[in-house]
Amino acid sequence: MTLEELKRIKAETLPQISMRHTHTVENETVYKHQVLICGGTGCTSSGSNKLIDEFYAQIKAHGIDNEVQIVRTGCFGLCELGPIVIVYPEGVFYAQCSIENVKRIVEEHIIGGNVIDDLVYHEKTTGEVKEKLSDMQFYKKQNRVALRNCGVVDPEKIEDYIAFDGYQALAKVVNEMTPEQVIDVMLDSGLRGRGGAGFPTGLKWKFASGNRGNVKKYVCCNGDEGDPGAFMDRSVLEGDPHSLIEAMAIAGYVIGADQGYVYVRAEYPIAVKRLTIAINEARKMGLLGKNIFGSGFDFDMEIRLGAGAFVCGEETALMTSIEGHRGEPRPRPPFPAVKGVFGKPTVLNNVETYANIPQIILNGAEWFKSIGTEKSKGTKVFALGGKIVNTGLVEVPMGTTVREIIFDIGGGIPNGKKFKAAQTGGPSGGCIPASLLDTPVDYDSLMAIGSMMGSGGLIVMDEDNCMVDIAKFFLEFTVDESCGKCTPCREGTKRMLEILTKITDGKGEDGDIEKLEELANTIKTSSLCGLGQTAPNPVLSTLRYFRDEYEAHVYEKRCPAGCCKNLLQVVIDPDKCKGCSLCSKKCPVGAISGQIKSPFVIDQSKCIKCGVCISSCKFGAIYKK
Amino acid sequence: MENMINLTIDGVAVSVPEGSTVLEAARAAHINIPTLCYLKDVQQIGACRLCLVEIEKQRGLPAACVMPVAEGMVVRTNTPALREQRRVNLELLLASHNRECTSCVRSENCELQALCREYGVKEYPFDGAKKETYVDEVSPCVIRDNSKCINCRRCIAACNDVQQIGAIGVSKRGFKTKIGPIFDFSLAQTPCVNCGQCIVACPVGALRERESIDDVWAAIGNPDKYVVVQPAPAVRASIGEEFGLPMGVAQTGKLAAALRRLGFDKVFDTNFGADLTIMEEGNELIERLTKGGALPMITSCSPGWISYCEKFFPEFIPNLSSCKSPHEMEGAMVKSYFAEKMGIDPKSIVVVSVMPCTAKKYEAARPELSNNGMQDVDYVLTVRELARMIKQAGIDFAKLPDEGFDAMLGESTGAADIFGATGGVMEAALRTVYAKVTGKELDKVEFDVVRGTEGVKEASIDLNGTVVNVAVAHGTANAKKVLEAVKNGEKNYHFIEVMCCPGGCVTGGGQPIVSSKDLQYVDLKKVRAQALYNEDAGKALRKSHENPAIKALYDTYLGEVGGHKAHKLLHTTYSQKDKYYC
Amino acid sequence: MALTPEQIAVKTEELKAFIAEHKDMPGPLMPIMQFAQESFGYLSLENMIIIADSLGIPVTEVYGVATFYAQFSLTPKGDNIISVCQGTACYVKGGAQVLARVEKELGITSNETTEDGKFTIQDTRCLGCCGLAPVMTINEDVYGKLTADMIPAILAKY
User: Fold this and answer.
1) Of the candidates C62, C49, C65, which has an alpha carbon nearest to the alpha carbon of residue C16?
2) Lesser CB count within 10 Å: N end or C end of chain C?
3) Residue C65 contacts B, CB cutoff 8 Å
4) What's the predicted TM-score (pTM) here?
5) Do B562 and B283 touch, CB atoms closer than 8 A?
6) Is A402:A437 a contact under the CB 8 Å cutoff?
7) 3-state class (DSSP) for residue A100
8) Could you tell me which of B195, B160, B119 has the C-alpha nearest to residue B111?
9) From the centroid of its chain, how far is CA B52?
10) C35, A493, B564, C126: which is closest to C137 by C-alpha?
11) How far is CA B485 from each of CA B294, B301, B488, rounded to the nearest angstrom?
């Protein structure tokens, strides 16, 4: 592959697919319409594969299979409304598309030229009809850099990627730049690791770049996205795998490595499949392998599958796992830049970090620096989940406030409930209460309020969520996922969980909260790796902002959110009860008794709080307190 | 000249070689940093988090045991925050630890207990789940009690890294992390060779030997039994440590006196068996060299090594010397020669061996090591068990007079003493083989080339024109190295000495346990070996074939060295064993 | 689906061939174990011994890895694998209640297999379709936006 060949492929492919950006058909000889269907995990789960088959069947049946191209893309972001279909050149967005709708889209829209109003996306909050992606609230405030190609290209077609300037950054780097120059650009851009800790990427590369050419080195990618509720990396792998391959090759050139490893969760089968296809395509084109772009630079890579251990997201654990051992972290120093995989100098970045790099090379550090805040440059991808209207994937400039993300992009809280807290950083992070909704999202601001950027999970909780229970949820996770090597994490998180369980069971005692704090501090400061050091964060941050909830559990034996079962009482309001006896008949444990036509009562010692009586009462007389 | 690094620890300036850890530097500055998972030369993983220190301009709290020193480093090891953390982490370890300390075999020699006392742990603030536990009591030698395990992994490092056996490992994760064999198997079902290195590595009471103390007391108390005892060469090198006597000083006289006071009917010495072994093994070597037979010939004194060979390198079984190990030879002689001369019914004789070894317990029960339906040796006590018995008997060991061993099977030469150190069997054999082959006696009996603690030692010895290539390996990992070199033709040896435990019997799995803290300051292998070399040097007779009692044995009972009777009583066989029994 | 002795013999040969092909790559253990897990549905002692012996490592190391990662199983799994997502997004929307109902209906807890070998419940952290929370998968089938009451009807399909 030469630069000329790359340009030729671009020139050939771009006109065919440019309508996805320009919304006009530039070349009458190619397709008149393109139907992009999301093939991300979310939409695949919602049945998008059957949709694709149906589209093929329909265009064939109508004899327009030469005019319409069906493309399976990666994630569009708005997973809540999957399966998602976009019809170009108009760029009309059809959400929750059913098999039956396919025929209508083909006949009415593609052939008839009419946008189908009742099928297009309606703004959930306002009910407004939004035909196009770019008009939607969800996309308006986003700035897609890492996700630029997700939902736009066919991830299984390298030509699509090349058409949108793919592999030009690699060509530029290996032919026109010295490794030092690349490092300077990276340093200048201010790009920081998107995996959580935010270490400057350029600095990482610089540390690993010494003694180039004389020692074996490795470039690794952390695709072990373990935060339960985050799927940014998966979306890049599924939607734009070539950006990762290109960036890793660039890193290989910079530090002098000829081998890369991508460590991907085995739980991501679609991502693994697409990345495998992409690597093979890149090899076939000579974009991986020997003498890339005739520069004399060799680089190849392989996939290593994770096997279900959250701790392997920690860099030393990941490398230990690649070597084929239990994924236990090792003490640093030595740092990976000195002694990494197989004891060799190694650079490890996460997927999203890599996805930014080709753009930085092509557009320059100045461009990247212009996005974001003073200390956090560029954009960040978040996986919005929980009690939020628009669940999905968003990419916003650093510095966007939490409020903007949740309310403007995410559409706020469903069912008229009140926002209580947002959780970022998963099991390592903390919560953001309503009072801090205007916190700008950047590494340092989040750290200052006791949360962290993390890999980008952002889970919204409403008034029905108990913060002690949420802290317990995360601790359960950590106890399960602790590698068991160091004392504080192995033993301490278990004791914290036991205390939290005691509290949510209504058995909390005076001193329990203090004990939690003492343990949290020891675990935070004395654990071996990042997992242990951050494990207490969910407790510390909920204690910081919701201490009153803890105290209500411990001292008043009350769960203010009405969530902790053992602290609830189901009671009958005697004023509303008509004495119909229906509830007592429905009660599975015979806890309700009374005289017909006079108020019934619940025997609290028998009640299992199943709530059947509440839903059976026609007078709304039964409630939890 | 090593590059020296200057740093300050708790205000003390210290200079240490480049590459040292902060822990080592602190030791040099006479500052003690607490450790649990650290064991010098065995394990450095920074897992227990007790050795955390503060280092100026350094983020977080590095573990001293793995943190390399750097020029100008300013370290603090003793701040209120560090002390607090150490206390909480100790409390956490105690919370899931089976705290039956008063009845624990390691009480008062427990590193966890000692640290809890130092850090003022007064209460147990967490009463939640304990570890899933089971006690493995199936193995004839090693008992594992996971309820006391603190997951420090020192045993695994000893088994897997040092010995390269891998009978135990770490499984599961988080709070469920467990140390032990696969599938909760008993050690008896695993590749375990019973070396007991895990026991001496364990900081707490999670690993211990199977005790024979009660059986031995019962035999002594039984008027119908004639109870004979024999301590191995290496026992005299270490027994004093159990009673506060200095390390590296042999207590042979007090040992004999103590054994007599325990009530044994005869106090013999395995040293006699060692001299006897040299006679038979030396002869076997000469036969194989001159008349043919599997070469290299490999020593067979160490039962851990025998198990290792049977499980890991069965193709070398023909190379093993057919000689029984010294205490088995001694036992066989007690129940035949001695019984006959004294007119005692051998069935009433109970032979007790005091060994630096746990594998000897397994060896004593091997069906091959018996005669006329009687095991050559009935019970094996470790040095630790003997010390417990001496304490139970109220004997003030340190104040005992020096006594000798009983005649007939108690006399020995210096060659027997050095059996307890790596290279010792080789050296003792060479002293005798040299004389047998050349017809001349050595002027200088010391073979310095086979002394010392290097993993594999090699030498070529000229026996009057015949050059014999020898190798000495201690620890099964080194044995593996040597055997593989032989196997793929890289090396051509005639005679190999293998001892299962690193350092040989002086640091065997049945020896007194020295804490990891003390091991930072002393090279145990060297110090205990020196005690034996001193014993040897102090003896008038230093070659096995010069032992008059041995001569008497052959003259009056066995007949020829390597003859028919000797073969029947003093030689044995081996067979391939599976690594896993399910 | 218990394997027949013939199937085991064939698969064992396949495993040995895979090992021969991969044993010299850097860090071969996990890919080999993943192959065995995929092929047999679990890691038997026999297979762990084959793997350990051919790589020249102790079986304890293979076992240590097998029990560390959630993907590996030491016992055969049921015909239908149920994964109820316990990721954060599903949890805040009631994933725990869904799991509790599945456990109640089948009379087993997470990481267990029903006596008839029909179902195994598998611990799952985030299936990655947070938009459909709470989510459960049975084999390849995805069920989203669940409530506990929907469970009996879904299970009845298998």
Assistant:
1) C49
2) N
3) no
4) 0.94
5) yes
6) yes
7) helix
8) B119
9) 32
10) C126
11) 16, 22, 5
pLDDT, tens digit (0-9, with 9 covering 90-100), for C47-59? 999 999 999 999 9
Q: At B510, which amino acid appears?
A: G
| A86, A76 contact by CB (below 8 A) | yes
Radius of gyration of chain C (CA): 18
DSSP-derived letter for residue A418 is P
Helices (H), ranges, A152-240: 158-163, 168-176, 179-189, 201-208, 232-239
Structural tokens at position B170: 């770490």
Cα torsion for B198, B202, B207, B211, to the nearest 10°? 90
Minimum distance, in Å, between the CA of residue C43 and any CA atom of chain B: 12
Which of C38, C65, C125 best probes binding to A when mutated, by most A CB atoms within 10 angstroms? C125
Strand order, beta sheet including C141-143: C119-124, C80-85, C136-138, C141-143
Return the active site residues of B.
281, 284, 301, 321, 360, 363, 368, 505
Q: Which chains touch A (3 or more CB pairs under 8 A)?
A: B, C
Determine the Cα–Cα distance for residues A191 and A204; give it in Å rounded to an integer. 11
Q: Where are the domains of chain C?
A: 5-68, 80-156
Q: Are A356 and A233 in contact (CB under 8 A)?
A: no
Rounded Cα gap, residues C34 and C38, in angstroms: 6
Domain holding A606, by residue range, is 569-624
Q: Name the domain boundary from A412, A442, A462.
A: A462
Residue pLDDT, tens place only, B205-258: 999 999 999 999 999 999 999 999 999 999 999 999 999 999 999 999 999 999
Outline where A511-575 has alpha helix (H). Answer: 512-526, 530-534, 537-555
Instruction: Report yes or no for ipTM above 0.85.
Output: yes
**Does the CA dihedral C135-C139-C140-C143 come out positive or negative?**
negative
Residues of B in contact with A329 (CB under 8 A): none
Q: In whole angstroms, give the CA distance from residue A484 to residue A487.
A: 7
> Are the CB atoms for A188 and A211 separated by under 8 Å?
no
Tokens of A110: 């593609």
Q: What six digits make up the tokens of A102? A: 């396919």
Which of C29, C69, C132 is facing A309, going by the closest CB pair? C69
The 10s digit of each residue's pLDDT in B425-456 is 999 999 999 999 999 999 999 999 999 999 99
Sequence-ordered list of residues with C-beta below 8 angstroms from that of A284, at least 6 positions apart, any chain: none
Distance between CA atoms of residues A410 and B214, nearest Å: 75
For A341-351, letters b (16+ CB in 10 Å) and e give beebbbbbbbb
Interchain contact B182–C (C-beta under 8 A): yes
Domain count, chain B: 3
Query: What is the number of structural domains in chain A?
Result: 5
Identity of the amino acid at B441: E
- Which of C147, C131, C144 lies closest to A82, judged by CA? C131
Q: Is the domain of A301 the same as that of A426?
A: no
Say if residue B576 is exposed, middle or buried (CB neighbours under 10 Å; 0-12, 13-18, 19+). exposed
**Topology given in CATH for the domain delimited by C80-156:** Glutaredoxin (3.40.30)
Tokens of A227: 């935060």
Q: Please give the DSSP secondary-structure letter assigned to residue A229.
A: T
Report if residue B107 sits inside a domain. Answer: no
Residues with Cβ within 8 Å of residue B524, at least 6 apart in sequence: B247, B503, B506, B507, B514
Helix (H) or strand (E) holding B80: helix B80-95
> Looking at residue B196, which CATH number applies to its domain?
3.30.70.20
Rounded to whole angstroms, how far apart are CA atoms A39 and A152? 11
Q: Across the A/C interface, how many CB contacts are shorter than 8 Å?
A: 131
Structure tokens at C123: 């611990």
Tokens read off for B384: 């630790």
- Give residue for tokens 């997502």: C85
- B345-400 confidence digits (pLDDT tens): 999 999 999 999 999 999 999 999 999 999 999 999 999 999 999 999 999 999 99
d(CA A233, CA A221): 11
